[in-house]
Amino acid sequence: QQTVYDDNNIFAKMLNGDIPYHKVYEDDKTLAFMDIMPQAKGHVLVIPKQKAIDLAGLEPEYAAAVLMTCKKVMRAQRQVFEREGIIQMQLNGAQAGQTVFHYHVHLIPSSIHELGRH
Ligand code: 5GP
To answer: Ligand 1: distance of its center to the CA of 104 in Å?
Structure first.
């Protein structure tokens, strides 16, 4: 379990411009990009430009900014995929299944009944 933020985590490297990714949206406080192993077509991740491991360490201004970016991404997903159903998912801690220890929100055009079957 991660207790100190690791500056070399994969999302930190993206924010530093050290590794490539498919950008969906960016502003001064957030970044959204395509998940490399999508659980459904159009699976997007939204991250804050803050060194937060999980929800516990997320500052209020970044929490608000992440949610506003999630709204934008979801609106685009609804248009592009012509579906209402979008899952917003966010894992805290290795026990919950978190694998990248920079806070991130999943936005997945899917259904809870179909998740895991893709
Ligand atoms: P977690 O299980 O921590 O909530 O989700 C981490 C997510 O990051 C996974 O869905 C995984 O596919 C995604 N991921 C891991 N490494 C990379 C990467 O190098 N690039 C991108 N775009 N996504 C990644």
So the answer is: 9
The pLDDT, as a whole number, for residue 2 is 81
Confirm whether the ipTM is greater than 0.95.
yes
0.95 cut: is pTM over it? Answer: yes
Q: Does the CB atom of residue 91 touch ligand 1 within 6 A? A: yes
For the chain, 118 residues long, the average pLDDT of each consecutive 10-residue run is 93 98 98 98 98 98 98 98 98 97 98 82
Q: 108: which DSSP letter?
A: E
Q: Under a CB-based contact definition with an 8 Å cutoff, are residues 58 and 52 in contact?
A: yes
SS3 112: coil
Q: What domains, with CATH codes, occur in the chain? A: 10-108 (3.30.428.10)
Count CB neighbours of 4 within 10 A: 8
Is the distance from the beta carbon of residue 100 to the nearest atom of ligand 1 less than 6 Å? yes
Distance 100 CA to ligand 1 centre (A): 7
- Tell me if 96 CB under 6 Å of ligand 1: no
